[in-house]
Prior knowledge:
Elements (H helix, E strand, L loop, with lengths): L2 H12 L11 H25 L5 H20 L2 H4 L11 H44 L27 E7 L14 H14 L3 E3 L2 E2 L5 H8 L6 H5 L10 E3 L7 E3 L3 H4 L6 E5 L3 E2 L6 E6 L17 H11 L3 H12 L10 H5 L1 H14 L5 E9 L13 H5 L6 H28 L7 E6 L17 E4 L8 E2 L3 E2 H8 L3 H4 L2
Parallel strand pairs: 1-9, 1-10, 2-12, 3-13, 5-7, 6-8, 6-9
Antiparallel strand pairs: 2-11, 4-5, 10-11
Helix pairs in contact: 1-2, 1-3, 3-5, 6-15, 10-11, 13-15
Amino acid sequence: MNSNFYKLYGLISFFPVWVFRGNLTINDILILFFLFLFVPIFVHIQLFKSYFKSKPKIIYFWLSLITFYSLDQNLGLWVTSKKEIFFISFNIKYFTSLLFSIMSIIILLLIFLSIKINALKILFSSIFIIFIFNIFDSAKNYSNFPKVDLIKNKQIVQNNLNKKLVIIFDEMSSLNSVDSDVVNGKITNQKIRDYFIKNNFNIYENAYALFRDTDQSLGSVLNFIKTKEEYINIDKNKEVHFLNKSNNYFTTNELIQNKFFDLNEHKNITVNQSMYIDYCGHPKVITCNQFNPFDNNLIFVNGFKNTKLTKYISVYRNNGSIFSNFFWRVATQVRLVDTLLDPDGEKASIRFIFDQIFDNIKNNNDTSLFFSHILVPHIPYGFNSRCEYDGNKSINYNRISLDQKRTQHNLEKLCLIKYLDEFFSKIKEIGQFKNFEIIIFSDHDSRIKNDDNIKNSVIFFHKKKNSKTSLIKINDISINNLIHNLSSDPTIKLN
């Protein structure tokens, strides 16, 4: 093989297709090309010139390494690498992924050593085809984020609308959950209780969720399923109903049935959603704001490392490769960067998300339902005592005790209420707060100790339109039954 072939092999192996998929500027792309293509290619060429000619076995090791790197960059092997290896599973995903990588490189090395040049030709053909396929594969392109403007779905509204705001906070335990039994539990609960009393919400202190997984919990709630048995009996061969895995790379699941949105009273729905469940396929949705980590308009709470390096490494990690995840983990550990990706980036940009909801309320007079599912206070943790962002907390979850986790979860809840209060204040300033029916609840508890013997206690707050009083209700009731009851009679009002 001549030197030009080895240069071409290196070019194909190192070429970073992912840099074109993160909404980056030309200058950003040039910087990343220098770091991820020009520097590695220079090293690759120099090694062949000065060292590898006399050491063929070392050549094969290097080729095995860059071949695996190429496969990883173009296929995104991170998810695959976290699974069992020869029926062995480890609790630490990075350890499992590291073993997968080492074993893959060894297998490639054995192939090179056994059939030598022919192996090089075969593997080059393979990585070249994968590389070309990756170039033309648009699934990970920034343009594939769900469209915001769905105005084609807008309905003509003739009567005054009963406006409703529904906010689902993900993984937020209730005021009477086991997370209250720590040093800051009671004072946190009292502050939250006082806040919602002041704003004339009814407080359901013993509300609970039927399920501890978001897809099961929200799928059942939004389709008026009232018991676990009713949900399971839909199809005993399936664990999850009403949702499908999304074909969109930037959304994990899509909700394919949503009886809550179907209600006649809901017109021209606006949605704010995370990257986990897509609610925007419903024909009544006219605005779809999905959290987009690469939106250049994002703003963050104080403390977040909103730097070029954070953006570069987040774009790299979004590619889904093993190398990018290890690179990101090291960079966050030494506190060089934070991450823009969900759910960390969503927590850091909680003000921005509330501002989006506010803008929707302010600018959409023909909308009756403003629906939001926000991945806060979901782990990883991120707030300090001043409710500023602290990336140290996002990487230390597995190193702190059960009580420390519960103490931090309570702090996360309190900070979320602080930002919610800022949002409510803006709605009050434009005179809209009193006109809204507002429902706030969580899909499941904190899951700090995912034990079926622990009640799955969640928040549930409800403010009626023009409400001037607040009631504290202590009866045990599921969020499924609460949503069903607050939706009047959904069996009659469905289209």
